[in-house]
Design goal:
Protein name: Phospholipid/cholesterol/gamma-HCH transport system substrate-binding protein
Order of helices and strands: HEEEEEEEEHHHHHHHEEHEEHEEEE
Pfam families: Mce4_CUP1, MlaD
Number of strands: 16
Keywords: Signal
Helix content: 25-40%
InterPro entries: Mce, Mce/MlaD, Mce_C, MlaD_Phospholipid_Transporter
Radius of gyration: 66 Å
Strand content: 15-25%
Strand order of the largest sheet: 7-1-4-3-2-6-5-8
Length: about 425
C-alpha cells in the first residue's frame, strides 16, 4: 500500500469517526476548570428574549457556585432563544426557579445564574426536562449599553447646560442663605405634617376614588343631564334681554327704596318711639288680653260655660246648625215678675198689668197679718191663704185675677193663679 493510499484511508476513517460522534468543533471541547456535572446530570431548558453572546460550554451557577454548563443554544418557534443546560443531580432547585444571564467581570465571560424566586413561594422541584419560561428569565446590562447611554448624555444630552444651571443656581442662592434655610425648615415641617396626616390623606384619596367610581357608574345619567341642560341654556339665552331688563329695574327699585328709607328714616324712628308707650301698655295687659280671648268667640257667654259644641242637623229647618250645651245662673225676683205680668189664658202670652190695679197698692209692701205661720181659710167664694216668706217680710196678697182675663175659668178649690198651682206666699181670691 502506498503512502497516498494510507493517507486517504486515514482521512476517511477520521471523517467517519467525527460524523458518528457529532463533533461541533471547539464547542464540543470542555473548558478547563469547568463545573463538575457528575455522571448523571439533569437537563433543563430555559427561554430567553436575548442571550447576548452566550455560547455552549458557558457555565451555570447557583449562588455564584458553578453547578453545570450550557450544552445548546437554539432559536425557538416564537423567535425566542432556547438554552439547554446540564445541572449536577445534587443541586436542588424549585420548579418555579428563575434564570438570568450574568457576566463574571467587566470583560469576563457570560454565564447562566439559577436561583429560587424572590417574590414567590418556592413550589415543586426542578428536574430533568423542566422548562423555565420567558416570564422568569432576564439578563444583565451590557457594558456597551452603559457606555452608549453615557455617550448620549455627554454629547447630545443636557450635560452642556449643567454648568449654566449650576451658575444660575449659585447666583440665586447667593446672599439668601438664611432665607433658603428657613424655606427648607418650613418645607421639612410641611412634609412632617403631611406624614402625620397620611392616614387622613389616604382616606381622602379613597373617598375621591369612590366618588370617581360613582361618577363613572352614573356616566349615562350625567350625559343625559348635560344633553338636557342645553335646551334650558338656549331658553335662558332667548330671555337674556328680559332678564337684563328685570335686573336693571330691580336696581332702580333698590335706588328708590334707599332714597325713601334715607328721607323717612327720622319719621320712622319718631313713630316707633311714639308707639313705645302703647306697646308697653299692651305688654303689661298681656295676661288680661289672653283671658279675654275666652269670651271673644263665644260672646256673650264665656267659653268655659259651654260644655259642648255640636254641628248637626236642625229638625226644624231641615238644614244644619251649631248646637251647644250651656249652664247659666239666673237671679229672678218672682215678686216683681208676678206683680207686673199676668198670663193670657187664651193666647198664653204675658200681659203687662198696672201694679196698682193688680195688687191694690200693696205690691212689694213688707208686712202681713199673722205671726208668720201659714194660714188657710176655705170658703164658697174662694180660698184665702197667707204665707210669710221669711222673718220680717211677707209677700203681698193678690186679688182674684179671673175678672181681668176674659174667658178665664173661675178659680176655686185650692187652684192657683190663672189655673196654676198654688204658690206659697201668694194670696188669691181676697185681700187681707
Amino acid at each position: 500500500m502506498t503512502s497516498s493510499t494510507r493517507r486517504a484511508a486515514a482521512l476517511v476513517s477520521a471523517a467517519l469517526l467525527l460524523s458518528g460522534c457529532g463533533f461541533r468543533g471547539a464547542y464540543s471541547i470542555d473548558l478547563p476548570g469547568g463545573a463538575d456535572v457528575g455522571d448523571d446530570p439533569y437537563s433543563v431548558q430555559i427561554q430567553f428574549a436575548d442571550v447576548l453572546d452566550l455560547v455552549p460550554q458557558s457555565g451555570v451557577r447557583v449562588a455564584d457556585v458553578p453547578v453545570g454548563k450550557v450544552t445548546d443554544v437554539q432559536l425557538g418557534d416564537d423567535w425566542t432563544a432556547v438554552v439547554t443546560v446540564e445541572v449536577n443531580r445534587d443541586v436542588e432547585l424549585p420548579a418555579n426557579a428563575v434564570a438570568m444571564i450574568q457576566q463574571s467581570s467587566l470583560l469576563g465571560e457570560k454565564y447562566v445564574e439559577l436561583a429560587a424566586p424572590g417574590s414567590e413561594e418556592p413550589t415543586g422541584e426542578l428536574g430533568d426536562g423542566s422548562l423555565i419560561t420567558l416570564d422568569r428569565t432576564n439578563r444583565n446590562v451590557e457594558v456597551e449599553e452603559v457606555l452608549g447611554a453615557l455617550s448620549l448624555v455627554l454629547n447630545g444630552g443636557g450635560l452642556t447646560q449643567l454648568q449654566t444651571i449650576t451658575s444660575e443656581l449659585g447666583q440665586a442662592l447667593e446672599g439668601r442663605t438664611d432665607a433658603v434655610r428657613n424655606t427648607l425648615d418650613q418645607l421639612d415641617t410641611f412634609i412632617g405634617g403631611l406624614d402625620v396626616q397620611r392616614e387622613e390623606i389616604n382616606r381622602a384619596l379613597d373617598s375621591v376614588n369612590a366618588l370617581a367610581a360613582t361618577l363613572s357608574a352614573g356616566t349615562g345619567t350625567i350625559t343625559t343631564a348635560l344633553d338636557t341642560i342645553g335646551p334650558g341654556l338656549a331658553v335662558l339665552e332667548d330671555q337674556r334681554g328680559l332678564l337684563v331688563s328685570m335686573l336693571q329695574s330691580l336696581g332702580q327699585l333698590g335706588d328708590v327704596g334707599t332714597r325713601v328709607i334715607n328721607e323717612t328714616g327720622a319719621d320712622t324712628v319718631a313713630n316707633l318711639q311714639d308707639l313705645q308707650p302703647i306697646l308697653s301698655q299692651l305688654a303689661a295687659a298681656g295676661p288680661n288680653l289672653a283671658g279675654s280671648l275666652d269670651l271673644l268667640l263665644t260672646y256673650p257667654f264665656p267659653a268655659s260655660s259651654l260644655t259642648a259644641l255640636q254641628y248637626r242637623a236642625d229638625q226644624r229647618t231641615g238644614g244644619y246648625a251649631l248646637f251647644t250645651n250651656m249652664t247659666a245662673d239666673l237671679n229672678l225676683d218672682l215678686r216683681q215678675l208676678f206683680c207686673r205680668y199676668v198670663v193670657d189664658q187664651t193666647t198664653g202670652a204675658l200681659q203687662l198689668v198696672d201694679p196698682e190695679e193688680l195688687t191694690g197698692g200693696s205690691c212689694g209692701q213688707p208686712g202681713s197679718p199673722g205671726n208668720g205661720q201659714p194660714t188657710r181659710q176655705d170658703g164658697a167664694a174662694g180660698t184665702t191663704s197667707t204665707t210669710t216668706a221669711g222673718p220680717g217680710f211677707t209677700l203681698p196678697t193678690l186679688p182674684d185675677l179671673t175678672a181681668l182675663v176674659p174667658g178665664a175659668p173661675a178659680t176655686g178649690g185650692g187652684s192657683g193663679l190663672l189655673g196654676l198651682p198654688a204658690i206659697p206666699g201668694l194670696t188669691t181670691g181676697a185681700t187681707p
